[in-house]
Specification:
disordered N terminus; single chain; 465 residues
């Protein structure tokens, strides 16, 4: 049995740029949550109860003393507020923009149980950090006396940047390597433009580099075990924060058709475009996946002018990687979310469109309820099918580590990631790992920052022994 939504073969592929009037793009890709005004911030800060042993601080992966920084905002001491935030989380500006605060600090805010509305911790955090970024970071933090001990950090994403800043503040010299043309990692290439408006990722990185002692080497890709060995010989320690650069295959027929691409590449193209009007998008877009990357790709497709956007996930709402707020954000922008549908084939069009995607056929799934089953239970196919028209298909099914290199470096890999303790120690002397490539965690920016922060402390302790 098959349900068609809607018929596709009679339509030619329609993927092109400039679907909207020029003035619409500036509006669509403006800051999704502009900075609070001073009055708004003071009013919101006064809602905080300044709890002792505050649950919001415990819920923050980087341990920011939330009541302390909000109290300083209430006192109009933004420099003091920013210092509290950035001492715990050097990428506090990015995290204020992209953290799922609704499932972290704000979810446990006492105000939620009292009045049904938490203190807007994320927006207050942004207010404080943004206020100090027009002044040198040296007005907040001073670098320690240089130790003469160099450290290599591979990967200039959140974990790598946090580690580099932590080491530089302690006086070590750091070379921050990255394969891309710009530093920032997913902050620069993998987050929706409306979350990181105004080239914020680069502004934040440049501001943090003002601490001194950090050299950024872009266009440098770790490709051989010999390269890694060379880094270890030339440096007192090496921190691997290489992320998850590979996208797994859907393993369905038609995946190689024109119009099928990785969602992360689509997002990166849009982030690096001087003008979003130059980015091509399909008239009918299907995004396969249920995480925050899927939401970012789906919403931005709609903002670029796609007429219909479907986001399709093989499991139910409870196991989606995207938070409830992210799902609501998608639906507010006209995205249709489907559950319990697994991709079975990407179908080509007819005639001149034969080599281009025209639709995706899905099979409806049901969970197999097993005693003691975990969060992700096994699925069973029902034999029922649904077909969605698609000029463009975006794969947002997660990313994986390119383990071929690391297999030869003495590292232990498990479940496709590097085994390391909470401080990043891998078991190989002087070699640390953290961020998304490390086994454990939920792949959140704020957790990657905590990984880098802890690794910097551990490396410093080792080099100081």
């Amino acid at each position: 049995m098959s349900a068609a939504i809607p018929a596709t073969d009679s339509h030619a592929p329609d993927v092109r740029p400039a679907r909207l009037a020029a003035e619409q793009y500036a509006h669509h890709f403006a800051d999704a949550a502009p900075r609070l005004t001073r009055t708004q911030a003071l009013v919101e800060a006064e809602r905080c109860l300044y709890c002792f042993d505050a649950p919001c601080a415990t819920a923050c992966p980087t341990g920011i003393d939330v009541p302390s920084f909000i109290q300083r905002i209430a006192d109009d001491n933004l420099r003091g507020a920013a210092r509290v935030i950035l001492d715990a989380n050097p990428l506090g500006g990015t995290c204020a923009r992209v953290c799922p605060t609704e499932v972290l600090c704000e979810q446990v805010c006492v105000r939620t149980t009292q009045s049904g509305k938490p203190v807007e911790i994320g927006r207050l955090q942004r207010y404080a950090v943004d206020a100090v970024m027009d002044r040198p970071i040296s007005q907040l933090f001073q670098r320690a006396t240089p130790t003469g001990k160099p450290v290599a950090v591979v990967g200039a994403g959140p974990a790598g940047i946090a580690c580099a800043v932590g080491l530089a503040r302690r006086g070590h010299s750091v070379v921050l390597h990255d394969a891309q043309a710009k530093g920032g990692g997913l902050n620069e290439y993998g987050l929706a433009s409306y979350k990181m408006a105004g080239q914020f990722a680069q502004r934040e990185l440049d501001w943090l580099l003002g601490i001194g002692g950090i050299t950024v080497l872009t266009g440098w890709r770790l490709a051989t075990a010999e390269q890694l060995q060379g880094l270890r010989q030339a440096h007192a320690a090496v921190y691997l924060a290489v992320g998850l650069a590979d996208t797994p295959s859907l393993r369905v027929p038609g995946e190689d058709l024109a119009g099928v691409r990785d969602a992360v590449d689509f997002i990166a193209e849009l982030r690096q475009a001087d003008d979003p009007a130059t980015v091509a998008v399909g008239r009918r877009v299907v995004v396969i996946g249920g995480g925050m990357t899927a939401v970012d790709a789906a919403v931005q497709s709609k903002l670029l002018g796609a007429e219909t956007v479907h986001m399709v996930y093989r499991r139910g709402p409870a196991t989606m990687g995207a938070s409830r707020a992210e799902q609501d954000w998608a639906q507010t922008h006209g995205i249709t979310i489907h559950h319990w549908l697994a991709p079975e084939a990407i179908l080509p069009g007819h005639g001149g469109a034969h080599g281009h995607a025209a639709a995706v056929r899905f099979e409806r799934m049901v969970p197999l309820h097993q005693p003691g089953g975990g969060r992700l239970q096994h699925l069973q196919a029902t034999g029922l099918h649904e077909t969605l028209a698609a000029d463009m298909v975006l794969k947002a099914i997660g990313q994986k580590l390119d383990a071929s290199l690391l297999d030869d470096c003495g590292l232990t890999l498990r479940e496709g990631r590097v085994v390391a303790d909470d401080d990043g120690r891998t078991g190989v002397p002087g070699l640390y790992a953290g961020g998304d490539c490390r086994l454990g965690g939920r792949d959140l920016t704020v957790e990657a920052v905590e990984d880098g922060k802890r690794a910097a402390a551990a490396i410093h302790a080792e080099l100081s022994a």
